[in-house]
Fold each of these.
Amino acid sequence: MRLFKCIVVSQLLLCACTNIDDNVTREVRTLYDSRGIVFDKNLETCLVLPEVGCGGCIDGAVYFLNKNKEFYRKEQRYNMFVLTAVTSPKMALRSLNEVSLEQYYCIWDSTNLYLSEGNNAIYPLLLYLKDGKIMKAQYQSPFTDDVLGALEKTIKR
Amino acid sequence: MNKSLLLLLCIIVLCSCTNKSIYPIDNPFLGNCDSTFLYRSDSVVRINIGGYLNPNPSASQFYKDSFGSYYIMLDENCLYLLDLNSGKQVKKDLSCCGRLNNYSGFLYLGDTLFVYAYKDKIAFMLNKNDDIMKKWLVKDKSLSEHPVDVEAITDFPMLYIPPKLFMSGSSLGSLEGKDLQKYPVECSIDINESIISYSVEYPEQYRLADFGGVYMNNVYHSVANDGNIVYSFPTDHSVHFYSDDMSYKKSVYMGSRYSDVINSSNQNSMELFKDKEQRIRYYISQHSYARVLYDKYRGLYYRIAQHPLLDWDGGNFVKPFSIIVMNEEGELLCETPIVEDYSSLNLHNMHVTEEGLLIQRKTKDENVIEFVKYVIE
């Protein structure tokens, strides 16, 4: 009986210690796989921004991007951003204080391929990648931690 | 005691899991009227806004006086007056009114400018030099347990019937079972006496059923003839007239020939409110009504009737709609369906001018705002 209890406890500890993907990461990975989205092997972070230019919608994410544009220039291949669900290209560019995005490593997602589904579709989505695979996905919403703050530390490292 | 608690818990769980019954708002008349009386003119109104301004302003207005004709729009914290003849732009900085975002708006009257700052819930009165003459905090819990949350964009314009300023606001969430008197929808300010008051209630059906708590709760109003104010609620086939002292006057049928019934939602209220997709699916599955506008040039009322959208697959949505026309005597004159290009028309930017009923039409050129014109035969 004692041996049985030891086996059960050790199995529980083993399960707790292994790296189990959270629901968000699994969902995003599944969604993007089904849409045939692939990422460059060198990419480490990808920030997906929906509805940029929509006043008040994702001010925080736009502020982040404006503050950290230098880390998204096209000369580097580690950090990328995607603009999706853009209703007004003019207003999106105005929000980013740009007339064009040519100098950045970014995707203008005109077909909304990168747009999430459901209630999370309105929130910025941050992807951490390794060898082209999504290791972690997080939404920046009123209900989550400061995802963008953590990203800022990562890209500045 | 434990058994009683368990029974109570079971009852609560059972109640939350079962679907509610649907409450139908039947259209009593399904009035048949000629549908060609109001038609789209071949000419359009094109306004060059330049390379910076928002091509989809949430708050804008046409204005004409002896000095000229203008299209005026609020963009960030500035008001832009675009001369329709010369094309010149005059910019007015409204930073003195705080941050003007979301549902902020304005009413330009030449010598006087009213501004509403949504974030701070303050209405301002400015003179022609843009100096603040008066200001009022409109969200006041001493006036109602649920103060009016004013919205002042084009859809819900500020109205001025001297000496009062009128602003509407909707309540979020289901009103089923609630005391509607505690959820007023109109805020009026006597600008001379600086007296703020709340009035006008949702129609009774909002107490009897759940209509999703968001889109169907919008409150549309317009100045009417004889100094009255007319209201349009999304679930009501009639429009409601109030006098400028906010006493109820009458209800007039102004329903759509295409809208046989509007059903309430039978889904769990909390789930519906939290789940945006579910909420949208309910709203687009139903007929509903939107803005009512008074055309003082022709003595007519226009009301937008929206119809179910059958093929929504996510993202933005635009319901097909028709325009109902009624005269000042309350007679329905016609209803014009907009079927082919309804999705290219922006009902949130709609105005009545001497030229007719103007509705913004989307264009590829984002430096131009274009309006199609609906005129009377």
Amino acid sequence: MEDTEIIELYWQRSQQAITETDGKYGRQLHTLSQKILYNQEDSEECVNDTYHAAWNTIPPKRPEFFFAYLAKIARNFCFGKLDYQKAKKRDALVVELSTELENCISAPDDYTRKMESEEIGRIISEFLHTQTEQMRKVFVRRYWYMDSITDIAKAYNMSDSKVKSILFRMRGKLREHLEEEGIVL
Amino acid sequence: MRGIDLLKDIGYIDDSFVQEAALDVGASKVKKTIQWSKWTRWGSVAAGFVVLCVAAVALRQGTRSYDATESASVDTAAVYSVTDSVTEEVYVEEAKEEAKEIANGASSTTTSTTTESAKTEEVSDMAADMAAQEAGNKETMTIISEYSKTAEVDGETAKMEVSVCYATPEKGEYFYFYELEEAMKAYAGQAVQYYVTIDVFEEGEQLTLEVIYGGEEVYDKNSPLIKEYERLLAEGYEVIIEEDELRGYFTEEELKTFAVNAEYGYAFHFTEEF
């Protein structure tokens, strides 16, 4: 079923909407959640929360990019749950990616949050607009979808070293962009 | 800011980027897969099997018609009317437009009678043709950077995706990917240049560019691929290093008589295909 048809089911308040959403995107949402939480039960809960959130927000919303809309909700739920679980040992992947991204920040240990996440997201979007499509996709696969270097290399028919090289450059450029936008502490 | 915060905040980027990367991965299921491996060597060159599949994506259509059944292993029962799709940069047209503008500009001081207007038109066409001729052979060549076939399936235009398994080229040998080979057949004898990527292999392993980090990023000048790039430049080929790849503009003749380094094997393909 096309995304527009599924969204129409939400608008008609048909519970079939959830079934269709799960059938089409459930596996991808679950994979994403699992990468962040590294826990089957919590991941399942986040995906279910995502469906509820979609049910409660469509209508009035009619998302242009339905999967991105769902995945963003799921990702936020997952990180929220990660905060809740922060006393526990964090998933190794999250630690790895966080460490990589700290290279984009001038003073990671002296953090005082001054901007809202949405604003920082907008600034990062500005930066991504200036990048080539290929570089952008690699970046998004790594830091949004949290894919491994090897998976990205396979998806885009590149060598692992090329993926690493692209990410290295982009982190450097992102650091400069963030500094220009005043995200320097 | 901590890394974990930035990782969370990346979650707020435009939905379009998220969708773009998601769609791409979905598309990769029907996209051509290319495997380089020693154990799949089937001799000197090329394609072992070819599977043509159809993906329903809108494409602009070319002008020539084929019967798709001429290709090997067409994986569908439908009968297609196939057309070529090609990306071109035609410098001749640009030269003509430029010349027309010059001619029209010069004519602005003349009278505006119908006869004179017609004459101006004629002059501008002549000027355009002369400009195109003067531009020389290479400048007036069409650049081919992509080539694929499309088919009509249930009234929709669909791109025919080709899945090919290639053998790694042996020392001193080279071959073209399926799409490039098809393009070379379609444009045989015409004034075109092919914009391609050249994969270079040594003992079955693909050469890659090593980047030296620290302050400014630079390529390692001693890396074999940079040496090969320099050799090809010295041979007179129009090659460049772009996005960590060895690429170049080649005529049909240059591709057919490519001067190999006996230590390496080469695979030529359109840049967009990888």
